[in-house]
Amino acid sequence: NDINLELWKAADSGDKSAVVSALSAGGDPSWQNPSDGDRTALMRAAIGNHADITRIIIEAGADIEKRNVNSDTAMHYAAWMGSNEALSVLINHKADVNSLGKWGWTPLMLAVRGGNLATTKALVDAGASVDIADNDGDTALHVAAYYNKAEIAR
Fold first, then answer.
1. What is the pTM of this model?
2. Which of 114, 145, 146, 112 is nearest to 129 (CA)?
3. Which parts of the chain are ANK repeats (predicted)?
């Protein structure tokens, strides 16, 4: 378990050599940190926009669709944070761009909510649906209107 936490911390801080070392020592690339809402090293790499680390962890066998306590995936985090380089790695490795979180939010909705125009465009270009509605019946366009993101709504 210590090596898994080392891997998680290295991914979080963007320490590529420590990530490689922890994986070589048997770190589980899909391990979920219970003290961080079950986030994985892949999620932490996506949050920090550490694209190389995102790729290394995926290629080490990480479950790219692993979900935390709120049913969010690494794709949700990359979209919310506007982590475009990590997002690109996730897209290239076929992460689900239409994955639904606990409240039915997609990565696209999170990118819109965060005001991340480039991220929104990348998701739409990768096939993210603008028509999916969340648990309240709202689509990404509703999210754009509600949060006054007119530039993204266009």
1. 0.95
2. 112
3. 37-69, 70-102, 103-135, 136-154
CA 64, CA 77: separation in Å to the nearest integer?
Answer: 12
b (16+ CB within 10 A) / e for 42-72: bbbbbbbbbbebbbbbbebebebebbbeeeb
d(CA 95, CA 87): 9
How does pLDDT run across 52-100, given as a tens digit for each residue?
A: 999 999 999 999 999 999 999 999 999 999 999 999 999 999 999 999 9
- Judge contact between 153 and 145, C-beta under 8 A: yes
Give SS3 for 20.
Answer: helix
- Which residue ranges form the domains of the chain, and what is each CATH number? 2-153 (1.25.40.20)
Encoded tokens for 33 = 């940190």
